[in-house]
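A common beginner's mistake is to predict each chain separately and then try to dock the pieces by hand. The better habit, illustrated here, is to supply every component at once so that their relative placement is modeled jointly.
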Amino acid sequence: MSTSFPFVPCNGFTPNNPGWSTVGDIASWSPDSTGRRFTFFFGLNAAYSLYIEVLGPEAYRLRFRPAPGASYATETSTAVVTRDLGLAGLQVTHSQPNPRQLVINTGTISIQVGLAPFYVQVFRGSQLIHQDAPGQGVLYIPGQQVVAIMKTAPSGANYYGLGEKAGAALQKNQFTYTFFNFDNYTYNGPSEGQPGPLNPTEPLYCSIPFLLENNPQLNPYNPYAGPPFATGLFLDNPGQTYANVSADDYSEMGGKYYLGALYNELDTYFFAGSGIADILAQYTTLTGRSPMPPRYAFGFHQGAYGYFDRYKLAAAANAYRAARIPCDGLHIDVDFQDNYRTFTHSELKFPNTKELFDDLHGIGFKMSTNITPIITTNVLNQEGVKAPYPQRDALVAANALIYDTRYGGGESPDYYTGGVNYGINYGNNPYPYPPLQPNNQGQVPLTAPGNYPDFGLANVRDVWGQQYQDLIQNVGLDMIWQDMTCPAIDANLPSPGQQYYKTFPQDLMMAQEERDPATGQVVSVNYLPNAQLHNSYVNNLLHATWDGINQLAPQRRNFIIARGGYAGMQRYAGLWTGDSASSWDFLNINIPEVLNLGLAGVPISGCDIGGFATGSGTTSQSSVIGGSVVGGVTNYELLTRWMQLGSFLPWFRNHYDGYNKQFQEAYAYAEPVPTNCRKYVELRYTMLQVYYDAMYRWTQTGLPICRPLFLAAPRDAGVYGNNNYYINSQFLVGDDFLVAPILFAAETASPPISPTRDLYLPAGSDWYAFQNNQAPLLGAVQGGSVISYTAGLDLVPIYVRAGAILPFQNLEQWVGQLPANPLTINCYPGPDRWSDDTAYQLYQDDGITQDAAKNGDYRVSRIYQQTLNADGRVTRQIRWARVTGPYTPPAQFNYIAILGSITSATQVTRDGAVLQNVGDPGSLAASTVDAWYWNQSLNIVFVKIFDTRADTTVSAAY
Amino acid sequence: MPSPSSSAKKASAAKSPAKAPARLLRANQGARPQITFTSDFHELVTGDLVPGPCSLRYDPLRLIALGDAAGETHHIRAYVRFHPSRAEWQGAMELPAGLPLADLADPTGQGYMLATTFDIPEGTDELEVWFSCTHEDGHTHWDSDFGKNHWLRFGLADLAIQSVKVSPAKAKGAAQDTLLVDLVTKPKIDSVSLRWRITSQPGAPRQITPLVVASLTDAGKNWSAPAGGIPVPRGATIAYDLVYTVEGRTHTDDNQGRWYIAD
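With all components supplied together, the output reads:
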């Protein structure tokens, strides 16, 4: 039966071919009592129906279940948390200007529905901004469940989002995609054409079928002429889904795009706005945002498959501290477990684990381990004796494990048994994994059979969450590394015809809760094949973990880093982009992949820096000599460039396969690798507040931390120049910090080449080469310029927008090392930012407890700056005003750095009171009162102000 | 385009009884079969002897040195003879289109599996498998166990494990428990040995105990441990697999690589 649900590649899903039905003429329609939902009946005997429901002034839902007599009374989404996208006070009207048309008006947009045939257009005022593809629109095949929605792609529109996808291009135009959570080791899975990280047609670990359309209107044209606009289309469907943006892979798709699915409903959400930010705000309202993560999540992390005992782990921890490379997180793989028993830890390999963790906490590390959704059937513990496995027993007692019931078959009394494959122990790991034994080559294939929880049920999620108790409350685990989330199942298990899946059999039956949309209560439970629910398994897993750890550690801020997800996963976890390999190709896809995740609602993501697996950038084959892995080392130039890029992306973790690589930690390389990496890890830590503020902004608006260039300059055609090279290889951290890393081999190229790249500075602003307050600012460069930048391995090209306000702090080796760490507010010369809208928003809390979320114990401030010219005198003013929150930071004072002070200020005042010029940095540091000095070598006026006033203004007159 | 509609309707009553099932003793019982030829010259039989589709996976590095793969094309062909019918199947192992083999081989030498599927006819008891590889120069190399071919059997079909358990000594203070074996095989199985080890003593050598035929019926042979049982340390946990011979050829049932654990 499993072959009834095949994996279908991109070009096997063909809604643009003949043979699909359209809605056709509407037989009847009616609004519901709210006046927001309009149901349309069509087809033979008017047996089919769909509805359009207005969710806000610029959003609607179109829902179509392709079955006669379909009911829409319940909801099953794991992605959506609210469908109120601005309903308060919303007046929805409708009219019928002629018998063939219904116009639904929200006051902001009008949805014009053709009735004969059914056809949807959306207008903003008189400007057309969205429409179905003529003659297509909603598509289905009667008697099947395949569905699609075909749209017109306006000329000049650019497409983004879709979450985690391979490929080196930021834009989604001209590509085709499929979404099926897949354990795509080194991105070599099923694809159209040659597989690999550059091929976007592969399914990956995370599925988010949310497509953004941006119309900057650089060359306005009919019928869409008018102001810039953006739209978004989200297909909420946990089965295998597809997107095709004008890719002619099996048919002529010019001027069109579609989203579609093999099974389930066509459940789409449409959003409109003036720009991408408007769309993201609505999408992340629909699918939810998380509270602020712990601040250490933005620190540097190190993980390895191969930290298999206390001594390996402690050696890495101590080496980081000795090398003075800041680091916050240590991630231990399944090596941590007692014989691959999920939720356990090994006192054999990690004696006195609690004490060890306490010690590591004492030097600033936060501990994480791999939790995979497998519950092993192995009755043996690591000592080779039959031993209780309480966590399994609890799940069994709760009837939480999936039975081996297949679609169309009778109930099975047995659990479904899959397994994990953790590779091969070539002899480097001396610990036993009974009953596993070395083969005739002395190698131990590391596998474990097991069962899987049915996370679609609330009681299963509850029991799963409780199983973290020992790790969280007794061992002292800080965060969760949620792995194998598809779930990934041993590819070597027999599954003829399913070699691509590496996950549950497609016909395996699992639970899905149906809820009453009004009450949110479960009204029934469906049992459906994995093929229909596959992509939602991970959301339910993350939900279970999130609720569990928050109940077990309610006072602290918890964090999950996950290897997969579905739309809405951002409520629970950050994402790393799976098993990358050590290659320049993987480095090159890092920026588009992370930026598009941000444009699909996931603010925290990043790649396994250096590559998890070996690849073309691995310098030698590894072997085990004397019980240790030798070789398999990542090219030093690749590692350096990857550490540098990663230092600017939201999730910053070096992670590697220590069973096949000798090392990958920067400290383990010869100089100058540690120095060149340390420099940017240190920069990360000194500018951590910038990330934290950007994260807070995401919690309020959905705007990602790392942003593509076009968000910085929406009307600037130049950002798309050089065949999109700039938008593919540059990005901004927050609003004003532009990074253009080197992403190619230079020193180790054959022959060596210059590490020189072109970078583009968006028009509309001037830009300063970033000096990190180590040298005076050079002259501002006008936006719209292309710079040819040569950057040796000690340098990343960075520019800062004129007028930027960037809060930095003193260097710490880990977040929270300094009991009090004052901010230095770097104020770059440039345009005034003296209004609430343009001011920098600063968010402060304790970074680790729930006090901010639960008690409002945080502080939001706005920082403004302006330059006054009066009577030939220049005065630069910085205003720092609290907006809300009772939180008091530990630092009793902060600094304001007024960059570009090419002469000393003649006078500095605070709220009118003249401050003392103490003349040098030592005196400023020692000053117990507000004071200032001018650093002549840096051209910066530093002002020290004590945190005593809710609203204060510093003025420096020159 | 799939036609999932008939199979994608809401299913009901799929949730099974609340009582927990026993843990499976034998992995992949009833599962479709899969045969894997690894680059380190293992021939792995997984799944059960179920007539119908069987997955065949083959690492081309068995026939082509990695260094020779670059720049050349190679054509690998699989041959299967089913016994006792002697019906045959043969087919090309599918290489992804447009890719030289060298590009498929992992740079670390871990290899790349070619895959195909064939049907096992009803009544099949044993498979005889071999491979050929024709190179650009016209020469052909064979993977045929030096001309004898690979003879593959399914332990799940050949052996029925009735009971393998550690029986506690009844005498107080006794030094040893007893490992008891009760299994039934097809009549054509010539010999069976139990390879066992004590899982709590990873350094201890593996023991091999030939089993003896306790009884013979039309349904098969009943085997047990010699001399009424195998002495083992008290409270020992025993992992084991079964090695058996048919017509002089040796086969292993190691519970699909997971070993069996004695009750």
